[in-house]
Sequence to fold (365 residues):
Amino acid sequence: MTIEILDLKKRYIEEKSEILKCIKKVLKKGNLILTPELQNFEKSICRFSGSKYCLGVNSGTDALMMSLWSVGVKKGDEVITSPISFIATASSIIHLGAKPVFVDVNDDLNINADLIERSITKRTKVIMPVHWTGRVCNMEKILKIARKYNLIVIEDAAQAMGAYFKNQHAGTFGKISAFSTHPFKNLNALGDGGFIITNEKRLYDKIKLYRNHGLRGRDNVEIIGVNSRLDSLNAEVLNFRLSRLKNIISRKQKNIGYYKKFVNTESIKILESNKNEKNSHSMFIILCKKRDELQKYLQRFKIQTRVYYKTPLHLYKATKYLGFKKGDFPNAEKFVKQVLSLPYHQHLKKKEIEYICKKINDFYS
Ligand SMILES: Cc1ncc(COP(=O)(O)O)c(C=O)c1O
Fold:
């Protein structure tokens, strides 16, 4: 039997009656877009995160683009961000005509705040840290730099729902932040989805209009907007799943604990949480020697693994034109050769993880 990296089928079995209840409730009403279910979800996110405003949108990518748009990022601007992320981090900046300017990562795979200042130019408008795998970046240092140079901070918190830094929820440090509810995330929709949080009414009002074609009422198009609304079915499901989020994170954390206990080789590094940080464990990534061989070896025993990602953002064919080259971000380039994501989802049993660890130990012995 395959040990899957993610098991959404088991999640459905666990939550079947509640999920079907959510679907029935919404379908019975016959309204699927911009209904009270969406407002309820947005209010729940505000309560959970401690932010004033939330807007449900189509995806984490849209949440990023609309956040950047709302603060006025435009052609010619530069946005400082991490080269270790999903392509959406860079593409959301590029879609607005701006340029992503990458800054190398620390050993924890997050942007190295000590290297940010040297990349600031007259064109820099935003610092966009990515809370990679659900580990919150060093926001104290980043906010200090932003204040010194009068820059806006937008958090790519796509992976950071349920993550904290000094007991403050991810996404509440910057001016505005973007989250994803993609099926692979801890708080996951039945398909694509995302949301934005902010404490600024002005930004909230702008995006509220923008996500719905710029429509105020049915007949008044105030600005040219887009169609990026979180639908009511997903809002209702996400509202239910939010009540389970802490439970899911703690089950995943427990499974990571088993890896720490049973892996007994020096060839693997399991990243520890930083001081003051509560990780949401949106992904479980280890650093390992002979990564590709290990991956193939585990595959032989039907253990699914994934690499997030083999390429840092500056070395894709599509991002070459930005002018960065191999060697520019040595840490990021080193880590993409070592990262491997292992199964750790909440439905896995201790003995399954023990089995995976045994195979890993065997491989290196
Ligand atoms: C760090 C990061 N940013 C942005 C995104 C984009 O989110 P979505 O897939 O919901 O568009 C993702 C999704 O995986 C992500 O991991």
